[in-house]
Design brief:
Elements (H helix, E strand, L loop, with lengths): L11 H5 L4 H11 L1 H15 L6 E5 L10 E10 L8 E10 L2 H4 L2 E8 L5 E8 L15 H18 L5 E5 L6 E5 L4 E5 L10 E9 L12 E12 L5 E5 L16 H11 L16
Parallel strand pairs: 2-5, 7-10
Antiparallel strand pairs: 1-6, 1-9, 2-3, 3-8, 4-5, 4-6, 7-8, 9-10, 10-11
Helix pairs in contact: 2-3, 3-5
């Protein structure tokens, strides 16, 4: 499978076997993944010259897919206001993938397979903003094949193939908000988020400083799950991934301005979200 094209989408059954978000982050903490296990992987990315194109990511899922569905991402520019800038956000949604749509998908997230390949498990549309940028990096196919084999061999040997994956470095990084009832994820730049009391962050993507590489000791976090703390029945405080229900009113307007969340929700609800070779229209 090419890193620029999709031969077939991962089955819903295979996707649903990926660890759910909170299980993956909990295991990453227990393994001290960031400090102990990611630096050697950064060395592999550097050796094959792909670290400008992909970065390390936590292998996880947020939704359960039905047969014939996939998680598809689009980048959307949200208009600001006289006091707020325009921002780009990533919206990922579980949608049906008929054959015409499959032909328009490009891989955005990859996981290692036992056979030594890298298998795409979430996708972007060629017609959406930013989703085409990986095609411009010009990684020779033979380099990608060799890199995939080395990466896959390492994560399987280290016992972390079930929680480490790769992400297109041109995807937007930021805080993730999940709407499980709509099976939609919003990734918002951290510059647009003002965390409020009760909210926190759990890391889900990493990159090493280009100047220091793995010698820097620990990578810089790129993506974070926005979390909330809740009182459990046992009387203790637990941290959960922030989930939003009930539409745009679920977002705290002090955390993300309504001028942004209004458009995010309206865009996610568009029937044309998965239209081939069409950018998502911005709805004010």
């Amino acid at each position: 499978m090419s890193y620029l094209s999709i031969d077939t989408i991962i089955s819903a059954g295979a996707y649903n076997r990926l660890p759910i978000d909170h299980d993956a982050t909990e295991r990453a903490v227990l393994l001290d993944l960031k400090r102990k296990l990611l630096p050697p992987l950064s060395t592999i990315l550097d050796r094959y010259g792909v670290n400008d194109s992909v970065e390390l990511h936590l292998l996880h899922r947020h939704f359960t897919l039905h047969a014939g569905e996939a998680v598809v991402h689009k980048t959307v520019t949200l208009p600001g206001s006289p006091y707020l800038p325009d921002i780009d956000v990533d919206i990922a949604k579980a949608i049906e993938c008929p054959e015409p749509l499959k032909a328009a998908l490009i891989p955005l997230l990859w996981m290692a397979s036992p056979s030594g390949d890298l298998v795409a498990y979430e996708y972007g549309l060629r017609g959406s903003v930013g989703s085409h940028k990986l095609a411009k990096t010009g990684i020779p196919s033979e380099v990608w094949t060799s890199f995939a084999a080395a990466f896959s061999a390492h994560v399987h040997f280290a016992g972390i193939a079930d929680i480490v994956s790769l992400k297109n470095k041109h995807c937007i990084s930021g805080g993730e908000y999940v709407a499980p009832d709509m099976r939609v994820l919003f990734r918002v730049p951290m510059t647009a988020i003002d965390l409020q009391p009760g909210s926190g962050l759990l890391e889900s993507g990493w990159a090493f400083d280009a100047a220091t590489g793995p010698d820097s000791g620990a990578p810089e976090d790129q993506d974070q799950h926005v979390t909330q703390t809740r009182q459990t029945t046992a009387g203790t405080v637990a941290t959960y991934h922030r989930v939003t229900k009930g539409g745009k009113s679920a977002f705290n307007p002090k955390e993300i301005p309504l001028v942004y969340t209004d458009t995010m929700w309206a865009t996610a609800e568009l029937k044309s979200f998965g239209a081939v070779n069409e950018e998502v229209g911005v709805v004010a």
